[in-house]
Amino acid sequence: MGRKLLLDKAHIEGIRYYDTYRSNGGYAAAEKALKTMGPEAVVEEVKKSGLRGRGGAGFPTGLKWSFIAKPEGVPRYLVCNADESEPGTFKDRYLMEFIPHLLIEGLLISSFALGANSAYIYIRGEYAWIPDILEQAIAEAKNKGWLGKNIQGTGFDLEIYVQRGAGAYICGEETALLESLEGKRGNPRIKPPFPAVKGLWGCPTVVNNVETIAAVVPIVNIGGDEYIKFGIGKSTGTKLISACGNINKPGVYEIEMNISVEEFIYSDEYCGGIKGGKRLKACIPGGSSVPVLPANLLLKTAKGETRMMTYESLNDGGFATGSMLGSGGFIVMDEDQCIVRNTLTFARFYHHESCGQCSPCREGTGWMKKVLHNIEYGKGKMSDIDLLWDIQRKIEGNTICPLGDAAAWPVAAAIRHFRDEFEWHVKHPDEALTRNFGLAHY
Ligand code: NAD
Ligand code: SF4
User: Fold this and answer.
1) How, if at all, do strands 159-164 and 77-82 pair?
2) SS3 assignment, position 260
3) Does residue 57 have its Cβ closer than 6 Å to ligand 1?
4) 66 CA distance to ligand 2 centroid (A)?
5) C-alpha distances in Å from residue 86, one per residue of 62, 309, 349, 403
6) Cβ contacts of residue 226 below 8 Å, gap of 6+?
7) Mutation probe of ligand 1 site: the residue of 92, 169, 289, 290 with most atoms within 8 A of C-beta
8) Which H or E run includes 161?
9) Is the pLDDT at 417 greater than 50, yes or no?
10) DSSP β-bridge partners for residue 389
């Protein structure tokens, strides 16, 4: 059995509530951080742990914290990005729903480390029932002296506010989130300046994902040196993976970052294999924004090495033969799935969610959607495949925020690895919608 650091107590009845959380070791890390460590020591421990941002980018958390500007008399903010909207990703929801005090405790320790006296949880609008759970946890923590003024007599003050989004995917992009939090339309800002220098209301702000903030609790509890033993290389600790698609056991799993992709898919501890005994065709390992991998490149890298559930291994070979761990949204496809149809589904999504600020994204996502629609619905030409390739190339790297890249990469990977399927659609316009695809990608 893999060891757990975040969900180890999630099964305990009543863990959602303060008394049970506290009697099972909750707030011990906060006590240690606030009473015996001090802010600098917490930052050092997080740096030592090698914790990388769990929202998708994998940026080193301790480094991000150390970038925060500290001008005299200017407030600093911590913003928790709970706008989990990446298709295939639902691990933060699980954490907030079942063990909300872990997030509150993580926010307390992280705010203390950063010198922030206000923290915000920006939560996606569709998670309609979760703000009440968070508000209750905040009220309980405040009641027990873990929030508010002079926390546990240490002189540190913190208020946590919950803000609901209104259903826009783009508000998960950190600067769009900050715009939205300020009451404006969620349009991404040009970076730099990064939020660590100029963030919420122009003040230094750290934006961290829910899981990242929660991970600070075990790091303080066990120490950075112990934390790194849960992974390999620069992929330290544990990672929450939301697994979905054609598998026997969809759900949220906490893995040590030292297991293989094969073990994750086929072992009974995790996905339990492909549903109905079918063959594995492909997988998007890190949420819809990352490249799809065919089965032969998913289990082994192009060099023939075992593909591991780590940042480095999943990206081995770059995007030519690799992908990304991203947000851990693990979407598994069996032999019956149509790559063209899947790519069209994602293209529709990105076109709908584009904020429209930059023309390569605004126009390109719509154009890709139309061309993919034609191919999928039997109206495509062979030249459309090259046209699609061309459009995605013109989007990538030419936009304000990563949504443009996120729209381009899935299309590029689909054509790169499954070009024969696109061609098949063009050659068989009448059958395109009625067949299954057990093609030669094994
Ligand atoms: P990024 O690489 O631009 O930034 C990562 C973080 O590091 C940001 O907080 C940024 O401010 C900070 N940073 C980077 N360089 C810095 C510097 N020089 N100084 C200070 N801070 C610096 O990526 P991103 O835009 O934050 O995230 C993109 C990723 O988000 C994608 O790869 C995708 O996997 C993921 N994503 C996740 C979801 C979800 O629901 N979890 C949704 C969409 C996308
Ligand atoms: Fe908006 Fe797309 Fe430009 Fe991002 S890339 S700022 S979503 S138009």
Assistant:
1) unpaired
2) strand
3) yes
4) 28
5) 24, 19, 10, 11
6) none
7) 289
8) strand 159-164
9) yes
10) none
Q: Which pLDDT tens digit goes with each residue over 186-200?
A: 999 999 999 999 999
ipTM of predicted assembly, 2 dp: 0.97
Q: What are residue 162's DSSP bridge partners?
A: 121
Buried b / exposed e along 93-131 (16+ C-beta atoms within 10 A): bbbbbbbbbbbbbbbbbbbbbbebbbbbbbbbeebeebb
**Residue 125 Cα to chain centre, angstroms:** 17
Give residue-wise pLDDT tens across range 81-133. Answer: 999 999 999 999 999 999 999 999 999 999 999 999 999 999 999 999 999 99
Say if ligand 1 is within 6 A of residue 172 CB: yes
CA distance 75 to 70: 8
Q: What is the pLDDT of residues 1-28, one digit of tens each?
A: 899 999 999 999 999 999 999 999 999 9
Question: Side chain identity at 281, as an amino acid letter?
Answer: K
Question: If you take atom 43 of ligand 1, which residue's CA is the nearest one?
Answer: 86
CA gap 8, 220 in Å, rounded: 16
Q: How far is CA 256 from the centre of its chain?
A: 17
| Spatial separation of the C-alpha atoms in residues 151 and 403, rounded to whole Å | 40
Is this model's pTM higher than 0.90 or not?
yes
Mean pLDDT of the residues in the chain: 96
Inter-helix orientation angle 100-114/91-98, to 10°: 100
Which one-letter amino acid corresponds to residue 3?
Answer: R
Q: Check pLDDT > 60 for residue 442.
A: no
Picking from 179, 223, 185, 177, the residue whose alpha carbon sits closest to that of residue 49 is 223
pLDDT in tens, 201-247: 999 999 999 999 999 999 999 999 999 999 999 999 999 999 999 99
399-to-188, 194, 214, 364 alpha-carbon distances in Å: 10, 16, 31, 11
Q: Is 408 in the pocket of ligand 2 (CB under 6 A)?
A: no
**Any residues with CB less than 8 A from the CB of 401 and at least 6 apart, and which?**
170, 173, 175, 176, 188
Question: pLDDT-based confidence at 430, cuts 50/70/90?
Answer: confident
Q: pLDDT grade, residue 438 (50/70/90)?
A: low
pLDDT band at residue 440 under the 50/70/90 scheme: very low
